[in-house]
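fold-stage: in
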Amino acid sequence: MTDTAHALGESRTLWELVERRAALTPDRPVLLQGDRTLTFGELRDRAERVAAGLHDRGVRPGTVVAWQLPTRIETALLSFALARLGAVQSPVIPFYRDREVGFALRESRAEYFAVPGVWRGYDHTALAERLGARGVFEAYETLPEGDPAVLPPPPSSGEEVRWIYWTSGTTSDPKGVLHTDRSLIAGGSCLAHALRLTPDDVGSMAFPFAHIAGPDYTVMLLLYGFPAVMFEQFALPDALEEYRKHGVTVAGGSTAFYSMFLAEQRKQPGEKVIPTLRLLAGGGAPKPPEIYHSVVREMGCRLTHGYGMTEVPMITMGDPEDTAENLATTEGRPPAGMEIRIAEDGEVRLRGEAVCRGYLDPEQTAAAFDEDGFLITGDVGHLTESGHLVLTGRIKDIIIRKGENISAKEIEDLLHTHPDVGDAAVIGLPDAERGERVCAVVEQPAGAAELTLRGLGAYLREQGLAVHKLPEQLEVVDALPRNKTLRKVLKYKLRERYGS
């Protein structure tokens, strides 16, 4: 990390970080969207005016403001305006509907709710009214503005909880995760340091800004003073024009994004699909080693993958200068200040400034931390001698067959090397004789040969998989069920579908 970036990373609050970056490079762009450009100076000045407009509406330090908005320049301005006021903001993913949105509004006790109106054919204002939300206002193209002279002093401490993020409730209600400005700055600093970025880079936000990756990525832009292209709706190949027009050098999101870029690259082998691209980076989901090797070989760029979650936006990250073996098979190393403890059962536990302050529900907070203050993640893994973290799965993804523990990820990584497998998920299903049986659910690429359980088993044996780990059930699907943020595979839906 450069001396300037390191100094900026010591900012107490997000607003202090905005002010310090704007003073350094006021005319450099920070956000690009279509034909629009927002500079660091404009981010500071416009966010202050929006903060004044919100203040005129009654928003004060500590006021809880929920927002459900797409990835737009206006969304970033609103978020930083709330940070300037010292309000508590509760971002909600735009794809969520009545159940999740209603839960977030009730649990956070939101006093205001910003929505995009009708977006992608869905009426969010009607949703808000149906749920009885308070202080509803639309914030898609226009934002409230006022005279910054009315504003109180900006917050001076970054240790108060000012962010409520929501885990993706799959089988139960989501959990409200509590963050401070400092925990988000620490997470973004980790990402910025690991990726070795420069002011000459151009990044991209292809994920919902309301995701925890939103501030994580924006902190990185503020630390290093480079811009990112925002995608309100991300789809390939449509988005490629924007990547090329703005000369994006760093792209990614998660493993599913790598696969999408690879699919486009394979349409024009030998010609870089994004000529300026030098790095794909992301996290949030397991990365099979074969994906890494395919990206490097076919796209002609580097790939670094990391480990993060809503509770800890950045835990480890691959270093672009690391060995191919480490980049392919590990999640990278933790930065200074992030402690990783591996419990006796292999569970990963975390302690550090980037770790959340707990949950809205005190009982959930008590259950989430051990006696030494380490966050209990539910992930299983180990640290190598060089300090790299290797994840082997989730505790709930460990399949127990006849008393033997089987890692679903080990089988998935091997399945990804099969030429007729596009993507795969391995789950354990109830079995009267074995306790659990191993089930492989597979997507196939276009033109692939038909897969059989026997043939797949023979292939896995050739790759060295032990006999007791071989799948006993094969399901071929058109598309694996995924969430709409980082496109993670929803294994619980597969268990529900095939568990009977």
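fold-stage: in (second)
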Amino acid sequence: MTDNTVAVLGAGMVGVTTALELQRRGMRVTLMDRRAPGLETSYGNAGVIARSSLMPFNHPKLWGTLPSLLRNQSTGFRYSPSFVASNLGWALGFVGRARQSVFEETTAALDDLIRLSTAEHRRLLGEVNALHRLRDNGWLFLYRSAQAFDAPGAQLGRETMARFGIATQALNAGELRDLEPVLQPVFAKALWIRDSCSVNSPGAVVKAYADAFVARGGQLQTCELRTLRSSGEGRWQIVDGHGNAQEFGRVVIALGPWSQKFMAELGVDIPMGFERGYHMHYAPGSAENSLQRPIYDTAGGYVLSPMEQGLRLSTGVELNRCDAPMKPVQLDITEAAARQALPLGQRLEHPLWMGRRPTLPDSRPVIDEMPGRPGLWLAFGHQHIGFSTGPGTAALLAAMMLGDKQLPMNPHPFRASRFL
């Protein structure tokens, strides 16, 4: 195929890095979204780039915690019964994949993707002069009791990280206090995930990548995306909200949680759940009296990250419709837990921010060409780790699209034919 025009739909981390990589490989790329780059889920996450994220939520120990989760009172997990009832296929598929064989395939695949992405992030941050945003001091899993540290799920996590060679260090209460003096003595144990890094503003990182794309000649268009259609000549037409059509040789759909609705316009049913989450910023302490790295309070169900905007508290999961009204109860509960752990000032913003994590039943994204529709490429379903795995997704997709004989990693676990 000689046509080197590509439209990338979606300007989050996955879409922006895909546009950058295809541009680097010589393609003429147009990046399209309804909002400016990095203003949706890629903006409000915890900013962690961690190999520990290879652990999917639907791991084999999920079965032991399922009865308590179904009571719908957990700080880290809430769900809408009506959403689950209307999406039983997705829910049963998600729980049904909490099997050892699927778990082993998923962890190996995600580890490959995270390692590739971390290297690509470092390259890109250097290219856009944003390495100052990167912290290399890891992050912490905090446990309020020794029993929680020894729980089956926590043990499985440590065993899995050790199997993949991820550097961790168990800390007692005194060692944790030495590492993070600002924390109150409510945690009996901690696990320091040393083999990870984080950034101080995920949205600013996405914007820096997008600015580099435009500076290198890429086209950025802000418009409502209605649908796309085949021109019948191996090309694709993208139709915007005003009915205007633009034609491209190839198209990449990287619309995150909105990929499901967009694909439905093509008659394609995507089994996707929406793990919604909230965040809020609080005034940080002084330089010598503030968090040095992100923390995950396993009982409190939140992540607290030092950000450019202040301390960012990110909640766990609210399983619900993509665009259902916000429910701030989860933020209120986790904020109360966080105030037990360290001093938080007043909330710094209004209204509340919410992001949507698009999750497929096996907790792996699709990175592949659409079966039976040549030239239509898919890159969505990254659940909680789209920010950290976007650059690796871009590298793999570009290599596949351009027919590289040597791919940067095994694409099989991310094949579209798993669900399509």
